[in-house]
Amino acid sequence: MPSDHAEVQVRPGDEGDLVALTDLYNHYVRETAVTFDTTPFTPAERRPWLLSHPVDGPHRLMVATDAGSGRVLGYASSSPFRAKPAYATSVETTVYVAPDAGRRGIGTLLYRTLFDALADEGLHRAYAGIAQPNAASTRLHERFGFRYVGTYREVGHKFGRWWDVAWHEKEL
């Protein structure tokens, strides 16, 4: 896999990224079953999500940008796994890379930075749900030590068909 890491910077996301992050996510909403959202968001609708990821703590947002242009190339985040208090030491993680920026190692760089940032947050487990099929995402998660724990069969309905979600976990 070619790497252009020298051309990519990763930093915590901020409100200045809102429009670009919304546009990136909306691509996946409109074009893929990677997310089970079915209606694109406006930046105003997506703002609470962005604000739920502060610079520190267990719920982070890391943004990859092109070092020259500043263009957002992707993001990785950790979010609450479930709302109940006993789940507080677990997070759900995700990565989205711009469709024209794939196969450059950006997802790997984003996850490495995210997990480094989470190392001292007292977390126990990270979980990732991967809509199937998605071999590239499965490979990325396995490279970071995630292991397969089970599949929810036909759990999502999008584009007129049913989709499975394979769940993976990683000890932190």
TrEMBL record:
Residues in the signal sequence: none
Entry keyword Aminoacyl-tRNA synthetase: no
Domain N-acetyltransferase: 8-172
Species this chain originates from: Streptomyces erythrogriseus
Keywords noted in UniProt: Acyltransferase, Transferase
Highest rank taxon of the organism: Bacteria
Keyword Acyltransferase carried by entry: yes
Entry protein name: GNAT family N-acetyltransferase
A matching Pfam family: Acetyltransf_1
InterPro entries: Acyl_CoA_acyltransferase (IPR016181), GNAT_dom (IPR000182)
Record-linked Gene3D superfamilies: 3.40.630.30
